[in-house]
Specification:
32% of the residues lie in helices and 18% in strands. The protein is built from four helices and five strands, in the order βαβαβαββα. The chain has one domain: 3-Layer(aba) Sandwich (Rossmann fold).
Amino acid sequence: MARSRRVLIVDPSIDSREVIRTALERQGVAVFEADSARRGDELMRRCHPDLVVVDGEIDGYSAGDSCAAWDTAGDIPRVVLGRIKGAATGDRQLSKPYQYSQLIRTIGELLGTHSGAQRPAA
């Protein structure tokens, strides 16, 4: 049996995390949440997400000194909320204010779950 997709949300806003979590859990996605870059780093190492959604203004990320685990996880797609300097080439950036529907659609595309397509589990 294939494991469910895993998404790590790193955002200081509990409201944003809750809306994103609710939408993703309805699609069967396992969601992990962090309110800081440090906590995001811990969860990245422990949970091995398939995708990371990160607020570009979070301390420790926007200054270009992203967490060590994020730096070594180059094959994990990221959706950056807002604009940051030094974003990785593969990062998808959504300008603020963004629409939650656009964010959920982007996450689905990157996970391979948009339009019913499934990416094979590792």
